[in-house]
Amino acid sequence: MIQDHGFRAGVLHIFEPLAVAGDGEQSHIVHVLVPRDYTPASRNYRVVYMNDGNTAFFPGGPANLTWNMATTLAGLYDQAAIEPVIVVAIFPIARNRDYTHVAWGGPECCGVEAYTRILADQIKPFIDANYATKPEPQSTLMLGSSHGGLCAFYVGSRRPDRFGVVAALSSSFWVGLDLRTTTSLAVPSPEKTLAASALLAMARPTLADRARRPRLLLEWGLVRTGGPHNSEIEARATVRGREMEALLVDEFGYRLDRDLVTIEDPEGEHNEITWERHSPRVLKFFFAA
Fold first, then answer.
1. CA separation (Å) from 76 to 85, 103, 214?
2. Topology adopted by domain 2-287
3. What InterPro entries does this protein map onto (predicted)?
């Protein structure tokens, strides 16, 4: 189904759900934004895959906020900053399950490997078969924030053959290290390091392979007022984000501002308002015209 919401950046193709899941798997709702001048006969398009797709174009999610991705793209197109892209917004089914790899003290967990398989082996092949895409990894961005940022990093590290560029904002790299208590997040324990985590055990072979590993952009914010999302969750994202940056540079030889960009935002919060503000830089870093 095609829906035209008046976005200057394009129109939406709606799949509710996109029925490509295998036996025993649930199918995700997927919204695909194609440019208004979409011309599959004459050109191919880079693709942005977004976790938390229910917040990509319209208010949604726990905070009922949006990335306003269509507005961001319209501005970038006006500046000729990037060539037109296709955006594939995937709605979570059970967010905490879909986006985490280990127990973290919250409800549900540990389904990100199954989600990665669905995304890499079912949803992306469907998009490449039915749209005029540039299917190679370096033209395919995996984008997410919070648990969705953790998931984006996981997907890019697990399947660099499909997703060659990754943006992980305010990422929950603390999952499995800094467990949620009944009222707050525990203070990071120095003996619980990312280097020794289950996440790095999975990612290390890919990150060490300079020919295959994804280019990365990481972001975190420094605002600590305005509730637990900033004072606790974003605080943990900051601690573990800095730790991840050091690991990527010191252990794996990532080069800042070349194959790794980090954004430490003094005004950054744990919400879509901040992530929307950074999305032009994300898109220009990976897909500058």
1. 11, 39, 24
2. Rossmann fold (3.40.50)
3. AB_hydrolase_fold (IPR029058), Esterase-like (IPR000801), Mycobacterial_A85_antigen (IPR050583)
For residues 91 and 107, is the Cβ–Cβ distance under 8 A?
no
What is the per-residue pLDDT across 9-66, written as a single tens digit (0 to 9) for each? 999 999 999 988 766 678 999 999 999 999 888 899 999 999 999 999 999 998 999 9
Cα–Cα distance between 66 and 182 in angstroms, integer?
28
- Residue spans per domain, the chain: 2-287
**Where does residue 116 rank: exposed (0-12), middle (13-18), buried (19+ CB within 10 A)?**
buried
- pLDDT for 58-114, tens place per residue? 999 989 999 999 999 999 999 999 999 999 999 999 999 999 999 887 788 999 999
Return d(Cα 187, Cα 183) in angstroms, integer: 12
From edge to edge, which strands make up the β-sheet containing 140-145? 2-3, 11-15, 30-34, 85-90, 46-50, 140-145, 165-169, 215-221, 260-265
CA of residue 230 relative to chain centroid, distance: 19
Instruction: For residues 231 and 239, give the distance between their C-alpha atoms in angstroms, rounded to a whole number.
Output: 12
